[in-house]
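Dear colleagues,

As part of the handover before I leave the project, I'm documenting each prediction I ran so the next person doesn't have to rerun anything. This entry is a single chain, and its sequence is reproduced below.
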Amino acid sequence: MTYRRNYEREVSFWNQRFKLKRDKNRRIVAMSHRNWPGIDGDYGIPLFREYYAEQVYQQQAKDRGIQKGYSLWRNYANRFTFINLHKEEDLTTNFVCTAVLGANHTCAHMRMENKNKNDVKEGRNFSLNLDFDMLAVHAYEIGIVPKSYRRDKVAKIIQKYTDSNGLSLPKTCLSGEKLDYLYRTSLEQERWILPVLELGPFLSARQVDEATRRLSPAQQSEFDAHWNAWIEEGKHCNVDVNETLKRKEWVTFFDKKLKKKYEKHT
């Protein structure tokens, strides 16, 4: 089983769920949102703060993440191996070095190879920045993007324009009690799993259940530092579409530049 800090996992889960077009059963039906909401079963992407408030906070869903996974498997497995995704190495190396018996030589070789790579996090299912799609959809819904334009193309044009001009988009973020709740539930999971990770890679259900659920001062400090850095990066935020479209450069973009850029893009 893998462990990722809850606040990172919640945003990643939201991103993975909405970056692709899915049906009502959450099955992937397309690799991108090509159509505007209401056309051919497509839909708008909710802000993370809206999604979290409705799907997690209002339900007080504490049994998410590593604890939920463990509870589902507890009565069906003889032993458990937990892999900490916060180690500074790629997932394959992490798995071989943590969960494969007798793989010491292979583990050492893989770690030596990784020292020569710039990106040791390769192989991850990376999230997409969904802000550009959100801005495209909002512009369409207020009537400044033609219905004939493809949604994913408009989003890409917005992204390219933003990046090439060094623009920053206004943000709206998870905040207040809901942000506090995300911190508390994340800390609860950290307290649950770190003592288990210290026991070793192959554990019985009894060992997992009886582990002491507390963090050392150093562990608490490291958790808070990681949380604060995550907040500083704005991972819990999305574009504020209303504030964005009040800015002169975006009024000009949609009024005078989008048509030319779209025709060039197609």
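Confidence is low (pLDDT under 50) at residues 119-123. The chain is about 55% helix and 5% strand.

All the best with the project,
I.
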